[in-house]
Amino acid sequence: QTSEALATFQSSNNQQHGQRQKHHDFTVNGQRARLYDCQSDSAGTNWNQRPLVVIPGMAQTISTWDGQATIMSRDRIVLVCEPLGVGLLPASSFNSETSDFSLPSQAQHLFQTMEHVFPSNKEDDNGSLYVDLVGFSLGGRISLAFCQLYPHCVDNLHVTGVAMERTERGRLYLAAWRDCLEQDDLRGFAWCALLASYSPSFLTAQKDKIARLWIPALSQSHSAEGLLKLMQQTHSEQADDDKFSVQSMVESRADAETRINGHLCVGEVDEMVSVDQVKKLAQVLDWDLTVIQSAGHAVPMEAPRGWRESVLSHCQCQPRPQSTNT
């Protein structure tokens, strides 16, 4: 028997960009999500304006995306779903031995969350959910895993900071993250994560904020135990050596009958993945690629306008194509 989703609900009004932006916070089977109402009166209840579902990266809470999600919700509903293992985990929802934060588990929880939040968003004959999906870094790999398990639920897919392979420098960064988390050193992890994720020019320009604001905010918003478990199940060689490795998922997607309209994005000076490896991924999938000039790995935060334009130009709402299945 499938357990019923337990959800908590909270509404609040935020004053942003001169408008009162309403969002709703959910927790569904341990996954936190934030729904941003469409700000346009003409599109607010039109389900042809498909929901835009955003999955953040490692150590990014839903609040990290408030600015981007608020702007993107001007013409459509936006749902931001936090990866399992991210944030401060209540003891009741986390067990270091049994909690499953693997990519397929992340994808299954994402589906359950979307079913709970969008119970009436059924556009095809078999009643499937239908959304546009946007993933950054870890969120991009979760998006690919979701497309493996629920390909009929996705029309447009936009993935940032994911390649066929990580760079050698990227592997070293991950080793540093893991070492900090094993020592329960969240401040050390925060420093390593920020230095790995942004370009040198951006870090220099923001240097006064890093120690004063960003390090405390990041280190106080997460559980070392939860992030370590997440890394062990999604960022290790053992975790990647299965059908949910990027290479396996890409090969499966390239041969799949169900078409997903995909687009890739990467920062020009990303040190976690290389532009060449992302180009290789784009060639295998026959997807278009956007390279954001001068940006590091954290493109959505470092170059918000360019990244947002890439997402919104790709995820334009069009009528769903008719199925060719007989």
From TrEMBL:
Annotated spans, Disordered: 1-23
Gene3D superfamilies: alpha/beta hydrolase
Biased composition (Polar residues): 1-18
InterPro entries in the record: AB_hydrolase_fold, Meta-cleavage_hydrolase
Identification of the protein by name: AB hydrolase-1 domain-containing protein
Organism: Entomoneis paludosa
Organism placement in taxonomy: Eukaryota, Sar, Stramenopiles, Ochrophyta, Bacillariophyta
